[in-house]
Amino acid sequence: MSAAPLSSRYRTAFVTGASTGLGRAFAEMLLREGVEVWGTARDTARLAPRARFHAVALELGDGAAAERVFLAAEREAGGFDLVVNNAGFGAFGGFAATDFSLWQRQMEIMLLHTARLSHAALRGLLARRRGALVNISSLAAEFPLPYQAAYNVVKSGLSALNESLMFETEGTGVIVIDFRPGDYRTDFEGAVTRPERLPDAAQERVWAAFHRLMEHGPAPAHAAEALRRALARGRSGTVRTGRFFQAVVGPFLARFGSLGLRRRLIAKYFDL
């Protein structure tokens, strides 16, 4: 692997959800590597001013408007060599018990509108025949989270999109990275919509386990380093990152075990 900074390969980057958590860690890592970064948040006041960092107001809830914002930033940058689609939120609750409009909103924002940004980004990358598209999926694509049905659908869909695009970009000079983090010590829990009062003991146990896993997960810088290594390798692929059990042992057992074993692992993990 080359010891050269990422800026030798990626001059400019666009990172969504750059104000907190993994998105902020990705942006900071890229800045340290000498990359000029356009980072987004719904409120740019949440984006700290830094050298070579451009704050962009982007509301992913409106797909057409988000695409216009991206294309304007792309023109300003003279083209992006790297696009990281990271923005998102969670929704916790029973699928049938929760109004479907919440699940629909999550799937539209995090899957449909993220795919729209990927579509716009990939056109520019392919035209220049270089660069990388990174869509932040989740280990939930392999190990679905109880009571987060739409989140699981979204992340599975993003991973499927990434796999499809890896075939389409083969030999073009463009790479696609399917980045699957596990539980990290971020404020993602605070971005999860859930009932004020959970209706039963099972949901209370799952929520407590989710809180505990997030609270004691690795720091976001750990995920940023995993992304740095993947970008430095310069080839398409899937990156699993997080606790050793989540990112290595769990997928190994799932690969060689049965679906029943996978379900038992999930149930054990979330105290069901």
Provide the fold topology:
Elements: E1 12-15, H1 21-32, E2 36-41, E3 53-57, H2 63-77, E4 82-85, E5 90-91, H3 100-128, E6 131-136, H4 149-168, E7 174-181, E8 192-193, H5 201-215, H6 220-233, E9 237-241, H7 244-256, H8 259-269
Parallel strand pairs: 1-2, 1-4, 2-3, 4-6, 5-8, 6-7, 7-9
Helix pairs in contact: 1-6, 2-3, 3-4
Please describe the structure with a list of short key phrases separated by commas or semicolons.
single chain, 272 residues, alpha/beta, Rossmann fold, seven-stranded parallel β-sheet, two-stranded parallel sheet, 8 helices, 9 strands, 15% strand, globular
Describe the structure.
With 272 residues, this protein is an alpha/beta fold. It has a single domain (7-269), classed as NAD(P)-binding Rossmann-like Domain (Rossmann fold, 3-Layer(aba) Sandwich). It is built from 8 helices and 9 strands. α3 (100-128) packs parallel to α4. The protein is globular. The relative contact order is 0.14.
